Amino acid sequence: MKKLLAIFVAALAAIGLEAHVASAARTCNSVITPGEGLAKAAANCPPSTTFIIKDGAYKLPGPIDVDSGDTFKGTYSDGTRPQIHANGAESAFDVSGTNRVTIRSLSISGAGGGDKCAPACGGAVKGDGTKLHVLNARLHHNANQGIGNPGDGFILKNSEIDHNGSYRFTSLDSSSGKDASSAGVKIAGNSATLTNNRVHNNYWHGIWCDLKGGPIVLTGNRIHNNGMSGIKYELCKGPGSKIAHNSVVHNGYLKKGSSDLEGRAGILLQTAQSVEVTNNTVQDNRGYGIHAKDSNRGKTFGVSIHHNSMRNDSVVGCQISGVKCEANGR
Q1: Which residues contact 135 (CB under 8 A, 6 or more apart)?
Q2: What's the pLDDT score for residue 246?
Q3: Which of the residues in the chain have pLDDT under 70?
Q4: What residue ranges do the domains of the chain occupy?
Q5: CA separation for the pair 209, 211 (Å, rounded)
Q6: Tell me, what's the pLDDT at 12?
Q7: Which pLDDT value is given to residue 17?
Q8: Shortest CA distance to 45 belongs to which of 62, 24, 67?
Q9: Distance (Å, rounded) from C-alpha 5 to C-alpha 275?
Q10: Which CATH superfamily is domain 45-326 in?
Q11: What burial class does residue 7 get, using C-beta atoms within 10 Å of its C-beta: 0-12 exposed, 13-18 middle, 19+ buried?
């Protein structure tokens, strides 16, 4: 909406009407309270606006059209963040084509979308915005992903990502004709840093790096009770990728298709390139604790798995020539 309005105003500038139209159409109110239209307020403000979102509940008529430099910051004092509900829209925040957007201290849920938009919908935050920062947020109960395919330089910190994903966004749903995309966080083709987050009870994978994403740094996260793998590092690359000091516990217990252990592990390194996996606590996962493997998409190489506490889980794939394992034990 903001982008279309900017084009419209620019066109009118040529005939000298832009000042009247801009003042009539755009009244920027950056402090939002429940009952006011958050999406409309965002559409009426220029890029690099800081929106202060007061505590309470907000239902969206459609995705919030985010501009570069925007900050969306919730304020609250009762222990529960302001609640943004996408109301079945394809996403809550569309950050496509943006740079340096921050989403802080909000609870975001309810993204949906039908088969016509899968797999590029159903995420609380969607789009390839660069240097997207999501801080102290909770992203939950979205049909596909909490965060889907952010651009380069993505940071997720001090947040909770839970109960995202559903059957129709996975390979289990053969009627959809779509590849699986469901995850708490799905990263594809770009770099990301995830620190001190809790990622749990997502339908499919907890954190999924795919399609030559990287480097990826995952440190200090608690990743548990996700339906498939806690962390899936697939066709991702370094140098500089690191999975360290995470707790990866009790993943892989999805009920549907429960006899198939393919794709289930605490940490799955599939066609992985140049990643260090160290000092993680890995316990009680269905399948293997840490599993390095080649696939029909390529070889796994440059992988170092060391000094992980495996409790009752095992490490497999150490025989692959590109994988080095040492000092992993109880």
Answers
A1: 102, 103, 104, 105, 155, 156, 157, 158, 159
A2: 98
A3: 1-26, 114-116, 118-119, 173-179, 256-261
A4: 45-326
A5: 7
A6: 42
A7: 46
A8: 67
A9: 45
A10: Single-stranded right-handed beta-helix, Pectin lyase-like (2.160.20.10)
A11: exposed
Residue 170: the pLDDT is 83
Q: Which of 165, 172, 174 is nearest to 201 (CA)?
A: 165
Tell me which amino acid residue 73 is: K
Question: Which token pair is 279?
Answer: 């000092």
The pair of structure tokens assigned to 77 is: 């004092």
Among 42, 164, 44, smallest CA distance to 103 is for 42
Which tens digit of pLDDT belongs to each residue from 144-183?
Answer: 999 999 999 999 999 999 999 998 888 776 655 456 789 9
Amino acid identity at 303: V
**Which pLDDT value is given to residue 162?**
98
